[in-house]
Amino acid sequence: MNFTQIQFSDRKSDIDIIQLQELFNVAAFWAKERSVEDLQIAIANSEPVVTIRDGERLIGFARATSDGIYRATIWDVVIHPDYQGSGLGSKLVETVLSHPRMNRVERTYLMTTHQQRFYKKIGFQTNSTTTMVLHNQSHLGSLPTEQVQLQESFGG
Ligand SMILES: CC(C)(COP(=O)(O)OP(=O)(O)OC[C@H]1O[C@@H](n2cnc3c(N)ncnc32)[C@H](O)[C@@H]1OP(=O)(O)O)[C@@H](O)C(=O)NCCC(=O)NCCS
């Protein structure tokens, strides 16, 4: 493959959301049919967000959420099928991990259904004992008033 046009970027302004939507629809089974508006929210609240372009074409994406020191999680790692198997995926994850918001973090987590061997090559270990999940339930959207006041009085 000719890599002369391949560029990595961590600038959010470089992201073409329509191309990102298409990339997810083609290659990310967990992220199909995401709306432009929701993708913009996810990007705005993630740091770093790393993209790979071949010329003007978006061919890779990954993002993370991080507290900068203790914990971080990597999300939505994807390489376009035309470009998989050329080392770009591992370089993408390593670029995320080397970002200033990530490189001091004690533990970096990620969730994967099928790609354990890919991440093991980068250094991730299986961690089946600590992960739990809460699916959004609308009643959690509004906490009781007294609970909110309690949090505020404790500065939470
Ligand atoms: C997973 C993904 C990001 C890997 O990207 P990639 O560019 O194809 O991977 P690389 O070429 O950098 O591979 C790095 C190494 O991992 C290995 N590898 C990649 N995918 C693998 C897999 N599914 N199983 C086992 N090994 C794998 C490669 O053989 C390579 O090994 P080597 O260093 O010994 O040559 C890419 O296949 C992808 O986007 N898949 C669809 C979306 C997805 O599943 N993302 C992960 C969500 S958690």
Percent range for β-strand residues: 15-25%
CATH fold naming: Aminopeptidase
Mean pLDDT: 91
CATH architecture: 3-Layer(aba) Sandwich
Share of helix among residues? Answer: 25-40%
Q: Uncertain runs with pLDDT below 50, 5 residues or more?
A: 152-156
Structural class, by secondary structure, is alpha+beta
Give the helix tally. 5
Total strands: 5
Number of domains: 1
* SSE arrangement, N to C: EHHEEEHEHH
Q: Could you name the key traits of this structure?
A:
156 residues, alpha+beta, Aminopeptidase, 30% helix, disordered C terminus, binds coenzyme A
3D architecture notes:
With 156 residues, this protein is of the alpha+beta class. The protein has a single domain (6-153), classed as Gcn5-related N-acetyltransferase (GNAT) (Aminopeptidase, 3-Layer(aba) Sandwich). It is built from 5 helices and 5 strands, in the order E-H-H-E-E-E-H-E-H-H. The chain has helices spanning 17-27, 36-44, 88-98, 116-122, 145-153, and strands at 6-9, 49-54, 57-66, 71-79, 107-110. Strands 1-2-3-4-5 form a 5-stranded mixed beta sheet, with helices on both faces. The termini are far apart. 18% of the residues are buried.
Can you summarize this structure?
This protein is an alpha+beta fold. The protein is built from five helices and five strands, in the order βααβββαβαα. The protein has a single domain (6-153), classed as Gcn5-related N-acetyltransferase (GNAT) (Aminopeptidase).
Give the topology.
Elements lengths: L5 E4 L7 H11 L8 H9 L4 E6 L2 E10 L4 E9 L8 H11 L8 E4 L5 H7 L22 H9 L3
Parallel strand pairs: 4-5
Antiparallel strand pairs: 1-2, 2-3, 3-4
The protein binds coenzyme A (COA).
Coenzyme A (COA) binds next to strand 4, helix 3 and helix 4.
